[in-house]
Amino acid sequence: MALKRTKTSIKQAAVRKLQPSYTTKGAVEKLQKITTYLNKRFVGRSEVINAMIVSIINRSHVMLEGPPGVAKSMLVNDFFGFIIEGNYYQKMMMKGTQPEELFGPLNLPQYRENGVWEHNTEGYLVEAHFAFIDEVYRASDMLLPSTLNILNERIFINGTETVNCPLRCAIGTTNFKTEDERLAAFHDRWLIRMDVKPLISAADLHKMLRSYSADEALQKPQPITLQELDLLHDAVDELELEDSILKMYSSICTKLRKEMSKDSNFFLSDRRIYQAFRLAGVNAVLNSRTEITYDDLFSTGMGLIEANNMQQQSALVGIMSSELQEMRDLTADEELVNRIKTKLNSETDKFDESMSHEDAKQLYMRLGEWHKSLTSASHSEMPKTRDWINAYGQLIDHCSSTLADVNCVLSKYSSAEFIVE
To answer: 284 and 157, same structural domain?
Structure first.
């Protein structure tokens, strides 16, 4: 077992009190610099690095799958090295790994005296803020399910007590995938699952070889604190969110399930759908936005599907692109409707008692043209706009006779909410 614990000295605590308060902007800038550094040091691993960055903010877990020798462990250790404060737990799993190596040694006096099976958890996974579990699937099928409550609910049943676990993010690595159905629930606890492959292009290999000589010249960025990560996590909860985005996301997930229904290896749980949506919020925070946009939904793909699974990726990209295009068309129609409504309102303002019958007739014809354009917009399917169109249609029908009729209709509709919004 490799264990690292960060303890703050009295001197360090005193210095920290003198530091200015942390800000979301400052935390984002720190993560950007850490990302830049890691991308220079680990060539061709930008997607993996991004997945780890969003996970420490989202408080979710990452599984890195790939053959030996692709720098999975080195990358994870370097990454966690940029987080100060909190407890860090690291363990390489083996077939003979015992529960005590994860949860702590048994409290033998408690067992002898009271018959209670209790662990001394200090310094182990139960009290860790961040964890690196290497070679996850080499552990026994009986051991891995015992971590489910820690990974998801963040609790541990220790003897007769329920312990709250401070775990923010766990990163696991494995050299092989498991198809064991008994571990399906455990596998689903890892929100982001990425396939880390050897570098293929000569250009990337050349960059990798050059990076070894350039490592010494790289200046390490400033680390980020646990408090700053908590600040970013809370910022996600404070984002503005329109219900139309939730509806689109629900539609995307429903269509993805239907599209992949024939693939027996694909399973999209309600829990995964719920947790993956927060990735959109994390993306918004990292881009310094105060609201979740439709484009942020693309980031949920990291959690909805297994990265680098081409079949799943193709299905999801197709569904998302279609949904977003429909929304862009609807937005364009809405802008058209608003322009027409403004034009119609300005035209109706031209009615007055001095208008001749001929002028009224010409105005009626122009209103008819605008009404036709308005009804052709797909946005007109929305109830409020449809009511507005119908009301103007009635106005046009009534203003074709005399000026008196026009004034009568105008007075009838001038106070209606659909005239001016």
So the answer is: no
pLDDT of residue 115: 72
Quote the pLDDT of residue 16: 42
Instruction: From 44, 79, 78, 77, select the one nearest 198 (Cα to Cα).
Output: 44
What one-character DSSP code corresponds to residue 86?
S
pLDDT of residue 351: 54
Q: Which residues contact 240 (CB under 8 A, 6 or more apart)?
A: 290, 291, 292
In a domain, 71, yes or no: yes
Q: Is 47 exposed, middle or buried (0-12, 13-18, 19+ CB in 10 A)?
A: middle
pLDDT of residue 128: 95
| Count of domains observed in the chain | 3
CA distance 311 to 77: 31
* Cα separation, 301 vs 277, whole angstroms: 9
Distance from C-alpha of 308 to C-alpha of 305, rounded to nearest angstrom:
9
Same domain flag for 301 and 171:
no
Task: For residue 378, give the DSSP letter.
Answer: G
Q: Indicate the SS3 state at residue 358.
A: helix
Check if the beta carbon of residue 337 is closer than 8 Å to that of residue 376: no
Same domain as 257, residue 122 = no
Q: Which residue, among 299, 253, 305, 293, has the nearest Cα to 274 in the 3D structure?
A: 253
Q: Are residues 112 and 195 in the same domain?
A: yes
Provide the pLDDT for residue 254: 94
The answer to the question of residue 318 being in a domain is no
Please give the average pLDDT of every successive group of 10 residues along the chain, which has 421 residues.
Answer: 35 41 92 95 93 96 93 94 93 93 87 80 95 93 90 92 95 85 85 91 87 72 94 94 91 92 85 94 95 91 84 88 76 59 60 58 65 57 52 54 47 39 34
**201-227: buried (b, 16+ CB within 10 Å) or exposed (e) per residue?**
eeeeeeeeeeeeeeeeeeeebeebbbe
Query: CB neighbours (10 Å) of residue 404?
Result: 9
Question: According to DSSP H, which parts of 124-242 are helical?
Answer: 148-151, 184-188, 202-214, 226-237
Q: Pairing state of beta strands 62-65 and 2-5? A: unpaired
Strands (E), 15-79: 62-65
Give the Cβ contact number of residue 285 at 10 Å.
25
Angle of helix 383-398 versus helix 357-376 axis, rounded to 10: 160
Residues 6+ apart with CB under 8 A from 11: none
Domain that holds residue 285: 239-308
